[in-house]
Automatic annotation (TrEMBL):
GO terms for biological process: aspartate family amino acid metabolic process. GO terms for molecular function: asparaginase activity. Residues 7-198 form the L-asparaginase N-terminal domain. It comes from Capnocytophaga felis. This is asparaginase. The gene is ansA.
Length: 342
């Protein structure tokens, strides 16, 4: 595998990776993106050509919303033919949502789009930003027989490349901030950069990039907990305009079997609200019907989220809701794998 002569576009959106400390207040603030080269002079030693573009205003990823996702996707779309790969610098807090949604938006993607960020600002002596950024660029630059090796949306953090739509942020402090429990790593960085080719999405022959840009944000996430009341649950299902819900259930997709609970879900589905069953466990899969506590959910038409993450499920809902499909087809489409998320 070679990296030479690859052209990479860095897309800087904000996050800790591009921040510096205001030493008077101790608060982290965004700095001009051009400073990234100043902070990481090693970038100019990499064997590839690197250009960069930056969000007009760098943001903390807590402020990410569909407009920003479209901004990232359009930047890739506009520059798609001129670059071999893309590295998106993004705050870690909502990086899994953005990596998931981009994996659905970039239909027909056949080049690498690698999300990365850091837990410590680039200027910090012990920063993890340098390794994350440099290796992400190297991964995006990898080619074999003149073609990119990675042809999907990945997330690189602390020596591991994951499939973006399989990740979850699990730690606010450790450098190892992300996990992908239900899918193995795509690449690992040690003495050698090892790509697990068998885990990568297969080549899509003659794929052409097409970017999806529509979202319906009338969605919600409900995390079940012992003691949840009928009033609260119905309060949510009665929100005007609500169209779909990710229901975070227990274990392999279990939920209370009390009549009021089941009636409330049934009424919501009858009203046309799509309910997706996703387990609140970090790993494993929903298996509807494994226990009585989930069999009824299957019968009333709850969508099986299988082993999808909540992050991928909520953004997949926002996109599918804009596809104008019947309720039955909606369930079928959601349960199908689009880009390796299930
Ligand atoms: N709050 C920051 C963000 O997500 C944290 C980070 O960059 O890691 O933008």
């Amino acid at each position: 595998m070679e990296t030479e002569s690859s052209k990479i576009l860095l897309i800087y959106t904000g996050g800790t990776i591009g921040m510096m400390k205001d030493y008077e207040t101790g608060v982290l603030k965004a700095f001009e993106f051009e400073n990234i080269y100043h902070r990481i002079p090693e970038l100019s030693h990499l064997d590839c050509l690197i250009d960069s573009v930056s969000f007009e205003k760098a943001i903390d990823s807590s402020d990410m919303n569909p407009k920003h996702w479209i901004n990232i996707a359009e930047t890739i779309e506009k520059n798609y033919d001129n670059y071999d790969g893309f590295v998106v610098l993004h705050g870690s807090d909502t990086m899994s949502y953005s990596a998931s949604v981009l994996s659905f938006m970039l239909e027909g993607l056949s080049k690498p789009v690698i999300f990365t960020g850091s837990q410590l600002p680039i200027g910090d002596l012990r920063t993890d930003a340098k390794e994350n950024l440099i290796t992400s660029i190297q991964l995006a630059a990898l080619k074999e027989n003149g073609k990119p090796v990675i042809k999907e949306v990945g997330l690189y953090f602390e020596y591991k490349l994951y499939r973006g739509n399989r990740t979850t942020k699990i730690n606010a402090e450790n450098f190892q901030a992300f996990v992908s429990i239900n899918y193995p790593t795509l690449a690992e960085s040690g003495v050698h950069l090892k790509v697990m080719k068998e885990n990568l999405l297969p080549e899509k022959p003659k794929a052409k990039l097409k970017v999806w840009k529509e979202f319906d944000q009338n969605v919600a996430i409900i995390k079940l907990f012992p003691g949840i009341t009928e009033k609260i649950l119905n309060g949510i299902f009665n929100i005007s305009g609500l169209k779909a819900v990710v229901l975070e259930t227990y274990g392999s997709g279990n939920a209370p079997t009390e009549t009021w609970f089941l009636k409330s879900l049934e009424a919501a589905i009858e009203k046309g609200i799509h309910i997706v069953n996703v387990t609140q466990c970090s790993g494993g899969s929903v298996i509807l019907g494994k226990y009585e506590a989930s069999e009824y959910l299957r019968k009333i038409g709850v969508i099986n989220g299988k082993d999808i993450t909540t992050e991928a499920a909520i953004v997949k809902l926002m996109i599918l809701l804009k596809k104008n499909i019947s309720s039955n087809l909606f369930k079928i489409r959601f349960e199908e794998n689009i880009s390796g998320e299930i």
